[in-house]
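User: Show me a protein chain along with its predicted structure.
Assistant: Here is one chain, sequence first, then structure tokens.
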Amino acid sequence: QVQVVESGGGLVQAGGSLRLSCAASGRTFSRFAMGWFRRAPGKEREFVAAIAWDGGSTAYADSLKGRFTISRDNAKNTVYLRMNSLKPEDTAVYSCAVDPSLGWVLKTTPYEYDYWGQGTQVTVSS
């Protein structure tokens, strides 16, 4: 059974950077695409980024492209989200999840993912 635990969140000033980590356990972690989502206060959960099982392809929300970078290290069973030029509107709980489909098309909706982590809070001050 795959489990994921997010870490790396915190309080940063606007314009700052942060790197989130999603550590996964399970024998077949490297077979699955992974995704990051976020939920801001008063908002629905939204797609942030996704990465293929081997890191060969990535997908980003259009509004975040260029500022956020997703990567993974399968030897460490970990996926990362590097966030640069942070804005107050980036404040949210960021969650990592597993795409169980074993497909080649990266998914962008939360309902296509399983094995959600607890989330890590990112707060960006002005």
